[in-house]
Amino acid sequence: MIENIPIYQSVRVAPSLPLRVSRLPGPAEEVVAKIENPSGQAWTGTVHALFLGYKGGAFAASAKVDVSLRANDSSVVVRIPLRTDARRGESWTKVTGIALTWPNGAVIQVPIPVTLSVTLDPAALEILPDGDSKAVAVPAASTEPPAEGAVAENFPTVRLRYAFDAARKFYRVINPTWPPPGEKNVIQNPKTLGLWIYGDGRGCVPRIRFTDSTEQVFQSSGPKIDWKGWRQVFFPMQSTEEKPLECWGGDDDGKIHYPIEFDSIFLLDNVSREKMEGEIFISAPTLIY
Questions:
Q1: What is the spatial distance between Cα 63 and Cα 86, in angstroms, rounded to a whole number?
Q2: Is a pLDDT exceeding 70 seen at residue 180?
Q3: Most buried among 21, 61, 173, 203, using CB within 10 Å?
Q4: In angstroms, rounded to a whole number, what is the distance separating the alpha carbons of residues 166 and 64?
Q5: Cross-strand pairs, 22
Q6: Whether the Cβ atoms of residue 264 and residue 234 lie closer than 8 Å to each other
Q7: Angle value at C-alpha 273, between 173 and 228, nearest 5 degrees
Q8: Is there a contact between 267 and 208 (Cβ–Cβ < 8 Å)?
C-alpha cells in the first residue's frame, strides 16, 4: 500500500514591479526616502523604517506610511516619522533599512546606511583662497538657492561664486561651528561623505579634507563638475589598498588615527589651470557609515 506523502516546497515571492529606494537628507526625527519607479507602473503599498537590533533582528522604527505611485510616476518622496522608545535609547533612531509592503502582503527590505547630517551654517563659513598665489579675491557666499530650488527642505544651500586666475588655485570652505567644541568624537569613523552639489559644468574638482589625531591630513576627491544641476557626490573617508586617500603631515603613515575632524568641509580646485569664473551650490553634507 502506498501512503500519501505530503511534499513541501518553499516559494520565494518576488514582486515584478522594481522599485529603488534611497535616503535623502532629513531631520533626526524622521527618515526622508525617495522611491524611484523605473518601470512607470502604478503601485500602492506601505513603507516603514527599520533598525537592526543587537541580536541582528530588524525592528520597526516607525509606523507604516501609505504610498501611491500613479502610472508613469517616476518617483515619490516619502517622509517617515520615527518612533521613540526610551528602552532602546539612541539606537532606536539608527535606521538601517526601509521595508516596502505590497497589497498582497509581500515585503521587501531595502538596506540603507546609518547617516549623520553635518550642520552647515552659512553665516559662519570661512572661505580661504589657497594655491600658487593666495592673493586672490575671496568668492562670494550666500544662502540663495539656484533657480530650480533647494535640494531639501530645512537644509541651507550655500552659493559659491568663484574667479580663478591661470594658475594652480583652489578655495577651501571651513565650517568652524560643527562639530561644537567638546564634541569632536561625534564624527567617529564614517565610510563616506555625501554632499549635494549644483554643478555649472566648468570642470572644477570638488574635494574634502580631514585630519586625524596625529594631525595627518587626508584629502578625498569627487568627479569633475562637468554636469549642470543637482547631483549627490560621495567622498570616501576610509583608505583602501585599491584606493588610498591622499595624505601628508602628522604620522604620514596613511592610516587614519581616530578621532578625526574636518579641515575643509569643501574644497574647489581649478585643475585646468585656466582662467575661469562660475558659481556652484552645495547643500546637505551627510556622513555615511
A1: 17
A2: yes
A3: 61
A4: 56
A5: 34
A6: no
A7: 60
A8: yes
At residue 185, the pLDDT reads 83
32 and 24 in contact (C-beta within 8 Å)?
Answer: yes
Q: Which residues lie below 8 Å from residue 75, measured CB to CB, with a gap of 6+?
A: 34, 35, 36, 37
Per-residue model confidence (pLDDT) at position 206: 98
Other Cβ atoms within 10 Å of 56 Cβ, number:
6
Give the phi and the psi of residue 72 in degrees, each rounded to 5: 75, 5
Pair 152, 25: CB distance under 8 Å: yes
SS (H, E, C) 47-73: EEEEEECCCCCEEECECCEEEEECCCC
Which pLDDT does position 16 carry in this prediction? 61
- What's the chain's Rg over C-alpha atoms? 23
Q: What is the pLDDT of residues 10-21, one digit of tens each?
A: 444 455 668 889
Q: What is the mean pLDDT of residues 206-235?
A: 96
Q: Is the peptide bond before 27 cis (omega within 30 degrees of 0)?
A: no
Q: C-alpha angle with apex 265: 228 to 128, nearest 5 degrees?
A: 90
* Inter-CA distances, 214 with 181, 257, 258, Å: 19, 7, 9
Q: What is the mean pLDDT of the chain?
A: 86
Here the cell at position 175 is 565650517
